[in-house]
Structures are given as C-alpha cells and as structure tokens.
Write a structure and sequence with these properties.
Layout: H1 6-9, E1 11-15, H2 19-31, E2 36-40, H3 43-53, E3 57-60, E4 63-64, E5 67-68, H4 69-76, E6 84-88, H5 93-101, E7 106-109, H6 114-129, E8 139-142, E9 145-148, E10 153-156, E11 159-162, H7 165-176, E12 181-183, H8 184-192, H9 200-214, E13 224-227, E14 231-234
Parallel strand pairs: 1-2, 1-3, 3-6, 6-7
Antiparallel strand pairs: 4-5, 8-9, 9-10, 10-11, 12-14, 13-14
Pfam families: Response_reg (PF00072), Trans_reg_C (PF00486)
Modified residues (4-aspartylphosphate): 61
DNA-binding region: 137-236
Length: 239
C-alpha cells in the first residue's frame, strides 16, 4: 500500500464484544500489512488499552456489554483526538449521524466487505497522518529562456522577469498540455476558476505579457502560438 508503509507503523485498536469478529478483522489487517494490532471486548478494557498503548486509530463496535461505542468515543475524546471508525450492525441514519456528529471519521455497517474496511481505514490514516504533498510547479526551457513557475520568474541570461499569479496559472495550464491546443475557455477557467465568462479579452492581454517575457519577438511568437478560433499552444522541445 506504499506511502512509507504507513500500515506497518500505526497502532490499531479493534473494539468488539464478538471474539470471532475481532479475530476476522485482525486477520484482514495483518494480511494487508498492518502489524501493531490490539483488541478489546468492552468499553472499560478499551479505555485501559488506550491509556497504555495510545493507539493511532480505533475500530469501534456500537453495541458493547458495558455501554456503547458512542459513549466510548465520548470518553476517548476527553484525552485523545485519534481517528475512529465505527463498525456496527446498527445502520440506521440516526446512528450514523450520531457517530459522525460525535467526531467519528467513518461508519461502516455490518456485514461489510473486508476490502471496503481496509480501503476506508487506510484512507483515514493517510488523511490524518500523512502530510499533504506540496504541488511542485515545473521548470522548463522556452527557447533560450528558463521558465521557473515555482519561483515565479523567467530567466534570460542575466535578466529575470517576474511572473504574476495569473501568468503562472496560465503557463501551468499550457505546460500541462504542452504541444497541444488549449482552448481559451480552459485557460480562462484555469486563471479565473468558474467565473471565467467575459475574460477572453483579458486573457489576450495576459498572453501578450507572457510573450514579452518568453519570446524574443512577442509580435512574431515562436513558442506560445495563437490557434485562431480555438486557443493557444505552448511549443516545448522535449528532451
């Protein structure tokens, strides 16, 4: 499952009063690479396990012999903000809303598909514990100029030309589709999101300014071409 083998690192607590279900879930998890798995059959036991091993995520049944999963979650939240996934035979909307309203991250109804449990559990772990990946903007060569979208500049010899946020958005879209036509609508949407109607003339102004920074002769462009009636094309020599 990749991503630094997150499944081998995280401690998982399974809370269910049925031994067979705990054993079955334990087996699913170990088959998928999870190794640090703990079990509890009641609320009091689960709280004790949490105090001693501090799990990274809990799978909670709703119906427990000394209370219910909702009360257990409320007790856990007094000392921990670890993610919780409810796994219950009670599938009524009220129970789902109650569980999610108390701060659970997901709610699965029994009977369930093992693969669904694994996918949802892994999704929660990745969302909670993996840092969001910063999108890296490209650096590319246009003729004798280096276009650094991450740094927001165009380098031409010893000269540097700063790029505006809109110019970066437009060049990013053009570079994603390099050597292919990008429609004017697609470019406007990339720069102005859903409120792009009526920006065609403004787009032309931005394209002109971009050409002034990446072309030797902006009036006779060789790299950022106008495709009449359609849009624009950024020509990039690969390799």
């Amino acid at each position: 499952m990749g991503d630094g083998r997150i499944e081998a690192q995280k401690k998982i607590l399974i809370v269910d009063d049925e031994h067979e279900i705990r054993t079955m879930i334990d087996g699913f998890l170990r088959k998928e690479g999870f190794t640090r798995i703990y079990q509890a059959s009641a609320c009091a036991e689960a709280l004790e396990v949490c105090r001693t091993i501090n799990p990274d995520i809990a799978i909670l049944d709703v119906m427990l012999p000394d209370g219910d999963g909702f009360g257990l979650l409320a007790a856990l939240r007094q000392s921990s903000d670890m993610p919780v996934l409810f796994l219950s035979a009670r599938g009524e909307d009220e129970d789902r809303l109650l569980g999610l309203g108390l701060g659970a991250d997901d709610y699965i109804v029994k009977p369930f598909l093992p693969r669904e449990l694994i996918l949802r559990l892994t999704a929660i772990l990745r969302r909670v514990y993996l840092p969001p990946m910063k999108e890296q903007r490209p650096v590319f060569v246009s003729g004798d100029r280096i276009v650094d979208l991450e740094g927001g500049i165009v380098q031409h010899g010893s000269k540097e030309y700063p790029l505006t946020a809109k110019e970066i958005a437009l060049l990013s879209k053009l570079y994603e589709n390099r050597n292919r036509i990008v429609t004017s609508d697609a470019l406007c949407q990339a720069a102005w999101n859903d409120d792009y109607y009526g920006y065609e003339n403004t787009l032309m102004v931005h394209i002109r300014r971009i050409r002034e920074k990446i072309e030797d002769n902006p009036s006779a462009p060789e790299h950022l071409l106008t495709i009449r009636g359609l849009g624009y094309k950024l020509l990039i020599k690969e390799g």
